[in-house]
Design goal:
Helix content is 44%, strand content 13%. It is of the alpha/beta class. It has two domains: 172 residues, Rossmann fold; 139 residues, Rossmann fold. Helix 1 crosses helix 13 and helix 3 runs antiparallel to helix 13. The protein is globular. The mean pLDDT is 96. The structure holds 5-phosphoarabinonic acid (PA5). The site of 5-phosphoarabinonic acid has 14 residues, from loops.
Length: 402
């Protein structure tokens, strides 16, 4: 008797870990935690401009936006970061109206160097202000057309390594350069990411948590196809957007068994979305997991004052309570309400503080979780063939118009 098969059954944790180790040799983001950051810091020191305008889209901006949004009010930043991402003309005009273009620094970021949104906006900026080496820096692949443009115009460039994918590039020049320029401590960012990386690769706490979570998500994907990240801080709105891109663009794929895979990411903010999406979680279809993200220490002691308002005595138990206590108690009450139901998978991630280390460990942990889910699903986590067809159609439409 002979036997042969082409089955790809569920992988064991050991095999999966070996696969990730193999992948680490050629997928670049894993090793960004160990890079030398001195060239970013040196460049940052030389920047005198106050308004820093990032032009890019998707993986070229979302991670930077997530970190900046989380930290900007908790740091004494002297420079301001703006993001030009969309082709919405009202958005472009309104953002540009708030910036002094004559004194701004433009950071143009595109790995491929040919992205339509990025280049259209860059061209528009060209029509408004003289672009040269004094007000522009470019972050791209070494052999892209954008790099070529930079070289012939003597504009400084920073490289995005070929093996670092857009949505995994936040800890490369893509995120580190603009963040260093506005005064974020990029070494602290890498420290947070490295802590998670070391714990994962030494099979510590992160390894256990990430593998357990990924295995659960993938094994129960047909029952719980939607993963809701419920972030209890308005400062995490950017993180939610970044997570949606990372999860959606990485995991929505056809696997090697030709099965369509994908987990649907949803990002909501507490307590605002307690007055909205929470109803769907509590009473709706049981097709969702919920991850609550909390911040232990907001480092802001804003209080609800003892103000007696006639007819509104009901809420006097809140007098003297700090808003940070209130928001965390709201998160805990939501978690308890979900857990009491007993049929909604829920986990809680608590960030110690509003700091570089906290946000980077959260983000790096999500990058690892995405890679591990991708391995469990037998997909290519790092490509995005699904977004190409629309681009080709758009190009044809413009060619037909000529
Ligand atoms: O994750 C990705 O690869 C994409 O979301 C890209 O970041 C996005 O399409 C922008 O591409 P580029 O950096 O080449 O302009």
């Amino acid at each position: 008797m002979r036997y042969k098969d082409n089955y790809n059954p569920t992988i064991s944790d050991e095999v999966l870990f070996d696969e990730i180790l193999k992948e680490k040799e050629h997928i670049g983001y894993y090793n960004l935690v160990n890079q030398d950051t001195s060239h970013f810091k040196e460049y940052a020191k030389s920047v005198q401009h106050k308004d820093i305008v990032v032009i890019g889209i998707g993986g070229s901006t979302l991670g930077t936006y997530a970190i900046y949004k989380f930290l900007k009010h908790s740091k004494n930043l002297e420079k301001k970061l703006y993001f030009l991402e969309t082709t919405d003309p009202i958005d472009i005009e309104s953002k540009l109206n708030g910036i002094d273009l004559e004194t701004a620094l433009f950071i143009v970021i595109s790995k491929s160097g040919t992205t339509i949104e990025t280049l259209s906006i860059f061209k528009y900026i060209h029509s408004l202000v003289k672009i040269d080496k004094n007000n522009t820096v470019i972050i791209t692949e070494n052999d892209s057309k954008l790099n070529h443009y930079a070289k012939i115009n003597d504009i400084q460039t920073f490289e995005i390594p070929k093996n670092v994918g857009g949505r995994f590039s936040v800890f490369s020049a893509v995120g580190l350069l603009p963040l260093a320029v506005v005064g974020i401590d990029i070494d602290a960012l890498l420290r947070g990411a490295k802590r998670v990386s070391d714990s994962f690769f030494s099979k510590g706490e992160e390894y256990k948590n990430i593998l357990k979570k990924a295995r659960f998500f993938v094994e129960y994907k047909n029952r719980f196809n939607i993963n809701v990240v419920f972030s209890y801080s308005a400062r995490l709105e950017g993180f939610n957007k970044w997570y949606i891109q990372l999860w959606g663009e990485s995991l929505g794929k056809v696997d090697i068994n030709t099965t369509r895979q994908g987990l649907t990411p949803i990002g909501i903010i507490g307590p605002v979305d307690q007055h909205s999406f929470l109803q769907l979680i509590i009473e709706g279809k049981r097709d969702k997991t919920v991850t609550v993200v909390k911040v232990d220490d907001f480092d802001k002691n804003l209080k609800i004052p003892t103000v007696h308002l006639e007819g509104l005595e009901e809420l006097e138990y809140l007098h003297g309570v700090e808003f940070s206590t209130l928001i965390n108690m709201q998160a805990d009450a939501t978690i308890e309400a979900i857990n009491d139901l007993g049929d909604i998978p829920c986990d809680v991630i608590t960030l110690e503080s509003v700091s570089e280390e906290s946000i980077s460990s959260l983000m790096y942990g999500y990058e690892l979780l995405t890679s591990v889910c991708g391995k469990f699903m037998y997909i290519d986590t790092y490509n995005q063939p699904g977004v190409e067809s629309g681009k080709i159609i758009l190009k044809k439409k413009f060619e037909q118009k000529k």
